[in-house]
Amino acid sequence: MNPENAIEINNLRCGYGGRDVLDIPRLEVPARSFVAVIGPNGSGKTTLARVISGVIPRRAGSIRINGREDSSLTRRARARALAVVNQNLEVGQITVEEYVLMGRIPHRPPVRFFETSAEVAIARENTRLTGIDAARHRPMNQLSGGERQLAAIARALTQETGILLLDEPTAHLDIAHQVRILDLARRLNREKGITVLLIIHDLNLASSYCDHLVLLDHGAPRFTGSPAEVLTADHVESVYGARVSILPGPYPGRPLVIPLGDR
Amino acid sequence: MSDRRRYRAWIITLLSLLLLLAASLMLGLCIGETTVSPAEVIRCLMSNDPDDTPAYVMRHLRLSRVLLGGAVGGVLGLAGVILQGIFRNPLVEPYTLGISGGASVGVSLAIVFSLRTVWEGLALPLAGFAGALATVFLVYGLGTRRGEMRVERLLLTGVMVSFISSSIVMLLMATTSNMNLQGIIFWIMGSLNETDETLTRLLMITSLASLALTYPYAPALNATRLGMEPAAQLGVNTTRVVKALFLIASLLTGVCVSVVGLIGFVGLIIPRLAHVLVGSDFRVLLPASFLGGASFLVLSDIVARSVIAPLELPIGVITGIVGGTIFIAIAGIGKTRVSS
Predict the structure, then answer these.
(1) Gap from B86 CA to chain A (nearest CA, Å)
(2) Which of B7, B217, B234 to mutate to test binding with chain A, by most A CBs within 10 Å of its CB?
(3) Which domains does chain A carry?
(4) pTM reported for the whole predicted model
(5) Range of the structural domain that residue B193 is part of
(6) CB-based contact A204:A257 (threshold 8 Å)
(7) pLDDT over 60 (residue A1)
(8) Residues of A in contact with B233 (CB under 8 A)
(9) Looking at this predicted complex, what is its ipTM?
(10) A13 has a chain B CB within 8 A of its CB
(11) What pLDDT digit, counting tens, does each position of A159-174 carry?
């Protein structure tokens, strides 16, 4: 066990209805790192997010969060250590401000009915930080996909956790919003020392932003390391079964993956 | 701050609803076989003279009836909003989950097997409650696996249990005597005409207790608006919250149904109205649904007993017609609001 790991997984097996989706001998996310989990559809990326956040049971193995066995953490303690931004955000008629304030739930005594002005101030700070302060009185279901993701990040930051787990935060977003959200994640990582575990489909965004990649294949980490180590044509072709070409890209050590179709 | 303004709006809404309830109760006391003024109502309520017949009727019959209406309406409105919250489905009401079905089977069996003659007035409520209780645990047991509650499963089981019980009731109705048949139909249509004051008092305590027992769950219910998994990721013990609220809401409904029969639509329509009025925050939604349901049932009862006075219409008919119409009207409002 390494106390410097924000998340540490050992011999984890979990899945749905008798079938194992994940079988991870070992996976480490060092504290204050920016790690991406990539992999094909159905390789277990979202299941990984769900098991780390404790919402699905596991068949075997252990997960340590900040060095502590997660079975010894209460739900609330876990929510104070790790905040999750989910892929599908189904929020109804509540305003951005109310939504962001929900990030204080794990810090409150379970039966306290009204938010304090200190809590409102924390929420406000995070709507400013994520750049959605102007929208704070609007209902969540009237926001664009990008604004909704930013609100979700503001809510996660309001939880004031050391670890941020982002599940496909850039899915269905345009390039400008993709950059805006990942720039924000990187800034939080560098300036606030927040550990970011990013689950992402887009290999090039993963390569450009993250220091460390984990390539999942059929529920197990197949290749791990720096973008240049993981994103080789052989690796990508063997996991995805698609022909690709690897280009150097604008930043050293951060290659770009170009899919090659039939020509 | 905007927060303070919001809280003030909540307090004003709740006070208005409280006034509405007080006005409904007063109206219910004024209107009857002989219609009297509010001043006369107050005089009657204060009177201690045992030979004062109007005062006796007021204190023991009318008062009992309007309070019963308020108590039952409050529980049904509250149970509706809670169940819609935990199932995240605006079509769920206490009766969708088979609770009323179970109570009907209990009561029908009691009538068919003439238990009424054994315990007098308490037989039907007890049989109804036993039926409701059996259904609640049946639905709960079938909807839970390895300690995890499956919300969809629970809902489906409830709907199926409803169908099965209404078939059983029809079977009993088809095979029993005409007199028993009438008894069953009369009970199914629902009535606030309960003469046993102990039962009324019991229901009032149950009703107030229902609000006190469920209100502490308001913050957790608020979190479940994000979905069960996101709420769990915020540290809310969603399994425990859903279980506790399901049991509280359905047992309370069972108590009401077993005393007053099937009074539908309150649990469906009142939460919708409350949503339109106060939004989706359960801290205000719970008391608003309680007060709204109480007023709605008291007012419906006034209509039920004055339209063809001195005869009475079944109150379930009034809540169904009025409730259904309002529901459609609100659905229309909702649509225009989305498109604008």
Answers:
(1) 14
(2) B234
(3) 5-259 (3.40.50.300)
(4) 0.89
(5) 3-339
(6) yes
(7) no
(8) 53-55, 79, 83-84, 86
(9) 0.91
(10) no
(11) 999 999 999 999 888 9
